Amino acid sequence: MISQYRLPPSIQNLIDELSKLPGIGPKTAARLTFHLLRAPEIRSNQLASALTDIKLKTRFCRICFNITEEDPCPLCSANGRDHGSICVVSDPLDIVALERTGDFKGLYHVLHGEISPINGVGPEHLKIEALHARVQATPPHEVILATNPTMEGETTALYLAKLLQPCGARITRIARGLPVGGDLEYADEVTLSSALSNRRDFS
Question: Which domains does the chain have, with CATH numbers?
Answer without folding.
Answer: 9-56 (1.10.8.420), 61-201 (3.40.1360.10)
